[in-house]
Amino acid sequence: MMQVKDIMGKNPILLNPEMTLREAAKILSENDISGAPVVDQEGKLVGILMVSDIIKEIKGKIESLDLAIPFTPFDLFDFYTVNMPMESDKDIMRDVAEMKVGDVMRKKVHYVRDEDDIETAIEILGKKDISRVPVVDKEGRVIGIITRSDVLKLLASNSLR
Description:
This protein has helices at 21-30, 51-64, 89-97, 101-104, 118-127, 148-156, and strands spanning 35-39, 45-50, 66-69, 80-83, 112-113, 132-136, 142-147. By secondary structure, the chain is an alpha+beta fold. It has a single domain (4-57, 96-160), classed as CBS-domain, CATH 3.10.580.10. Strands 5-6-7 form a three-stranded mixed beta sheet. Helix 5 links the parallel strand 5 and strand 6. The model has no long low-confidence stretch (mean pLDDT 87).
């Protein structure tokens, strides 16, 4: 039976919760990845940050500028959205860029252990519809990562013959 350690990426890109989103975005974009595990000083898994989490934060900031106000006392139950130009897009991006990874990351993270069967990782990737699963050792330290691409490489490889 094939194990997670047989196909995992062994040098995963890691983030820490005290990084700014600007720093994290730079790391993600430079490495052409859509997310990375977040670890504490001991290398233990504390979360995961995905590009989609950053996008949601930007979207939330933009939407928070839309105010619902009644136009007349008779319209109390009919609210209209009025976009108040309080902040520019640049200001919103700057605010999000200075946020900490720990404030935006997903704290509930699906993970596997290096000794788990590869089927466990594939099941998590499929059932949870996620693109990556951190691999942790017995102490909870991140030692690798399995992505959908790793599964495709396995499928395409000659090692299955």
